[in-house]
Structures are given as structure tokens and as C-alpha cells.
Amino acid sequence: MGTLYLVRHGQASFGADDYDQLSDLGRRQAERLGQYWASRGLRFDAVITGSLRRHAQTWAGIASGAGMDHAPLVWPGLDEYDSHAVIETIHPHPLVKPDTPELYRQHFRLLRDGLAQWMAGTVSPRGMPSYTDFVHGVTGALDHVRSHHHGQNVLIVSSGGPISTAMGHVLGLSPDATIDLNMRIRNSAVTQFQFTPKRHALLTYNTLPHLDGPDYDSWITYA
């Protein structure tokens, strides 16, 4: 039996012109996770990442903190959905920059609604695959892990959407429950599956063992 670790990227640049870039805190979160794993002697037999910049930067931080040098397998099916495209399907007018709590909440209310409609097949966000194809991209990565890494430790670095989709697939969750999980995933959080050649089983979800303690309270972020 193997163990699959799924890590959401560190804090990105929410509200900036280019979200796909870790903040300084996001880099520290990733490096701290690597340090934590190194202190416990955890090593990986394989590393898989999405193709986004924040995925590569998160893996670079983990690798630096842990002293690892794996060349990851890049799996585009682990890339995040385009949240702006999702929101545009139900709110075609541009949103102002979410720089207040109310605007932040409005952004995520619209995102939740847009995701539900995309998952139901009632909208087709510009430049995005169908939800069925999105799910296939994620489950293809899970199938690859089961087929090629039995008995090994495998790390996947991805985003909240693909990780919650993996959870929904493994646990047989409804679309609404999958969206709820998506909205709760914290930056650099760790989810673990055990796996055999036939199936995955959930061990933990959305944990931050590397940020445990008062010194790291301000490091816990969601976007």
C-alpha cells in the first residue's frame, strides 16, 4: 500500500493582475512544509505537479526546505479551473478588485454559483474544458499513481479545485459537497490518500501540521 500526499499551492497573489505567482508568504509556507517533512524523515519516490507557475514554485519551496531534488512529472490535468471565466458565465460585467471583506465574500459567492452551474453542465466557461473533462484530468493522475507507484510515497502539488475533485471522486460526494471542500482548502494544506492498485482511501484532509503553534498563526491563509 502506498501513500499519496496532495498539497495545495502556497498563498498566491489574489487580487493582483497575475494571480499565478506565489506571494512571499506563499514561498515561506512551502519551504516550511519541506522543513517539516525533512525533520520527520519523509521522502518521496515520485513528485507530480500541475503545469501552473504557482505549482512549480510551491514544489521548489518544498524541495528547498526538505533538501530534495526530484524532477517532477508535470500533469496539466492537475491545473486549476479559471475562476474569472467561471464567474463571467453568471456575472458578465467586470468585478472591481476584491479589496474589502464584502467584495471578497461577493467574489466567492459568485464563484460558488458559477462552479455549481459548470459542474451541472449548464454553463461553459470561456477557454475551459467541460467539467467531465476536468474530472478526467484529475482522475487520470490518480490512476497513474495507482498504476505506477504501488507501495511508494508520492507527492502531488496542485490547487484547491483539483484536490477537492479528487476528494469528491474518492468519497463519492455530491457537487455541492465538493464545492464546500474546495472553498475550505488552505494554502499549503496536506491531504493524504492511501492507495492500492485498485483504489484510493482517504487518510487526512486539509491539514497544516507544519504550521502548528502560535508562531505560525499568521501564516494560515486561504487564497
3D architecture notes:
With 223 residues, this protein is an alpha/beta fold. The chain folds into 2 domains: 2-80 and 132-219, Phosphoglycerate mutase-like (Rossmann fold, 3-Layer(aba) Sandwich); 82-127, no CATH class. Helix content is 43%, strand content 15%. It contains 7 helices and 6 strands. It has helices spanning 24-39, 53-66, 83-88, 101-120, 131-148, 160-171, 175-184; strands spanning 2-8, 46-49, 73-74, 153-158, 190-195, 200-207. Strands 3-2-4-1-5-6 form a 6-stranded mixed beta sheet. Helix 1 (24-39) crosses helix 2 (53-66) and helix 4 packs antiparallel against helix 7 (175-184). The longest helix has 20 residues, at 101-120. The chain is globular. The two termini are 33 Å apart.
- The rounded distance between the terminal residues' Cα atoms is 33 Å
Largest sheet: 6 strands, mixed
Radius of gyration from CA coordinates: 17 Å
Q: The CATH topology of the largest domain, please?
A: Rossmann fold
**Unreliable spans:** none
**Morphology:** globular
Count the E strands.
6
Mean pLDDT: 94
Strand content: 5-15%
CATH superfamily of the largest domain: Phosphoglycerate mutase-like
> What portion of residues is helical?
40-55%
What is the count of structural domains?
2
In terms of structural class, how would the helical and strand content be classed?
alpha/beta
Structure annotation, total helices: 7
Strand order of the largest sheet: 3-2-4-1-5-6
Organism: Hydrogenophaga bisanensis
Keywords: Hydrolase
Pfam families: His_Phos_1
Protein name: Histidine phosphatase family protein
